[in-house]
Amino acid sequence: MQLTLDIPDQYLQNHTAIQTAQQIKLYAALLMFQSGQLSRGAACEFAGVDIYDFFTACKQHQISVINASEDSIEADVLRFQQRYN
14-43, pLDDT tens digit by residue? Predict the structure, then answer.
């Protein structure tokens, strides 16, 4: 699917249209990942970046890459301990 956006030229001053489009896709993917609308893999695909670049962008924008509740993490730790102790 193709989506067309009209962006005033003044916002493309130091970037090409392609660079701006890539940045908008990354920002959209970050926001949808942060809000739980996309998984990490889907966000990477949406943005057209690999997982390492996506994690770097998450770090730059202070977005946690672990979207698990405290209870879920505690349950995982308990299962791990039971299995390996």
Answer: 888 899 999 999 999 999 999 999 998 999
Angle, vertex CA 22, rays to CA 3 and CA 20, nearest 5: 90
Residue pair 29/54 in contact by the 8 Å Cβ criterion:
yes
Tally the domains of the chain.
Answer: 1
Of 25, 21, 62, 63, the C-alpha closest to 42 is 25
Could you tell me the residue range of the domain that residue 29 belongs to? 9-84
Residue 41 CB contacts under 8 Å (≥ 6 apart), including other chains: 51
- Gap between the Cα atoms of 15 and 17, Å rounded: 7
> pTM of the predicted model, to two decimals?
0.74
Using DSSP's 3-state secondary structure scheme, residue 8 falls into coil
